[in-house]
Design goal:
The chain is mainly alpha-helical. 43% of the residues lie in helices and 9% in strands. The chain contains four helices and three strands, in the order αββαααβ.
Amino acid sequence: MKYEMRISEIVMNSLFVLLLALGFLTLSSLHAQDKKPPETIVFDSKMGNVAFNHAKHIEREARKCETCHDKLFPQSRAPINFKAGMHKPAEVKKESCAACHVAGGKAFESKANCKNCHVK
């Protein structure tokens, strides 16, 4: 009888360790998938959709996500709310895309360059 209890304890312990290891691997895999940023993000716009090349911006900023996240954009796929009438106020405050895409900024100025972002 002691022998049977010992075997069941070993089996239960082994099963527990196996499930724990599988859980860890699953969580690690999900965490790694969360960290992979999208290559391109498309924002719908009446002026023509904006295909934001996320990969190019990541490369340009030497993979420093904190340059934009979370101070300019949430780290989610939520809309950025950069709609009509928002360009000029954002440029004045150097918020959103206008943190870089403004006169004297790190990237081309959005003013008079609509076709650089908006594609009809």
